[in-house]
# Entry
Amino acid sequence: MLTIIGSCTKLDETKYLYDTVNSDGFYQTDAELSSAVGAAYSNLAAIGSNNHYDMAAFARWAGIDIVHLPNKGGGAAITNDLVTGDAHVALVNAASSTGVIKAGQVRALAIMSDRRLAEYPDAPTLLELGYANAKGLWSALYAPAATPRDVIETVRAAAAQALRSEPVEAAFSKQMIRALPSASLEDAQAFDRAEMAYWKKVTDEVKVELPD
# Structure
């Protein structure tokens, strides 16, 4: 068993991208994707990964079909499949996809975040579009459940101080990562409970089948 020490960071993601070079029949806006007839092809890193569940949850809530295409090549390979048109939509890291977006090779249809990004001012958040699935990726520190509270508090305070430091903030900014240190251990525990409840609901509603 583990206990949370404190939340650390949040990584915003460009939720839906599509090929603009071979764009016949593809989606100009999130609304067009949400009202799609037939299946869109979604690229993802691995079956059962967080972006697989996020995309599957979006498809369920939007009432559309998305065919998932597992990709073993990671973020760069997924982005390349969008550029070539082999995949229609994907969830990718906002920072790593900046180049192809600015080059007009793919388009950001929505941002998986609780606020718009300055780098993509015209891309709405999923919350704005009426979807609750706007979590984005986050990181946190955990410790064995039996760890004494004073030790946890010491580590939490040190981590929070580091996350607020200028070098860390500067490095994170380049990667579109926001430092979000927990205000207290109780705050971290409340965050952890809420995330556990959220992901239980997602995994109960969205069934991801492993291939044979």
Remarks:
- The CA atoms of residues 66 and 157 lie 43 Å apart.
- Residues 13-112 form a domain with the D-Maltodextrin-Binding Protein; domain 2 fold (CATH 3.40.190.10).
- The chain has two domains: 2-10+137-205, 13-112.
- The first helix runs from residue 30 to 34.
